[in-house]
Amino acid sequence: MFDYLGINTRIQYGTIKIPGWDLTTDNLFYNINKAENYYHDNPTYNFDNDILKSLLSSFYIPTSIDPNAAYHYIRADGLFSTTTFGITSAISKGRMHKGFFYGQGTNELVMAYTSELNISLLHNNWKTLQPIRVLRHEFDSLSYININGKNNYSDAPSFAVIGIDITKLYMMYYYWQKAEKAKSLLEGGTERNVGHFIAMYVLPNMIESHNDVVIINKYYNRVKGLPDVSNVRHTPQFFTINVKKVLDDQITNHLKRMSTSKWPIVQIGQNTMLTNNKSIIDHMEFASDLINYQNKWLWFLSNFKPMIYLLSVGGSESVINKNKFVINTFIRELDRMINDGSFSISPLVPIKELLVKELAELKKLCKY
Q: Which of 197, 263, 274, 330 could form a disulfide with 267 if both were Cys (CB 3.0 to 4.6 A apart)?
């Protein structure tokens, strides 16, 4: 996102080392890997995620063609398969959905995009691809269970933004089908189907990005003076290390040190670490090949809370002034999107209301 706004994030500013952070995130990543491996190794079936089943059923890729041909076919035509499902992309504004991932209590916006992949590496590492990326949600509890739409994550109405990398999803499914055919020929038996693929690989591999957003929400709650609310209903069926308290303490201590820094927001972002050695800056970058009128608004909406967090850390007028260019560019883009009339049609009105509400919060914070 910062690159899109013309802000250089490649300059490496100084960092504050958080005592114990490396051990905490190592333990957190251990839990995430444990969850991924558990689902990869224990065949389960997903009954509930209709949008993923519909996508995978709507785009036929013959497993008889070679990987390069499959990849170029997906790159050329894959995005068009998403338009009939109300998914936001560079060719469709999309619409609001009810809980494909976080359950019926959550309004969700789903965005599809394409990306470039190194095909030569996929034969060995297709199982590690992360085609589904959680871009935003309202939850603040670490979780290691499949986010499958079956169970509500919150009694209160909630909101989430989910990104689907169509190139990764369809290539992953291509390799899955080839592996199932080979296994069936060698061992006999029937091939497992799309429901198994979703439950065993697609959903487990999004657990990491879910927890990235949990950490962002914890930082956001601290700077806004909001309490965390435990809202995960189910515990995993495998051992995990409890990192909640130590993570909460480290975030609180880290914010105390950063709040007096008067850093520019890029430096604050580089110092706000998530899982697997990623920063909040990495999380906020646009993943799509193409950013345009149809999908730009959703990338901005995904980044509202991180942006408000970054601007709130310093908590002083000088911090706001130091980041004035970023603020003005961000607000101008959003004003233009809200007022251009494209959200006036019925399915998009709830989205416009959400954008207006969050933009008002940002303007108030920045005395705009």
A: 263
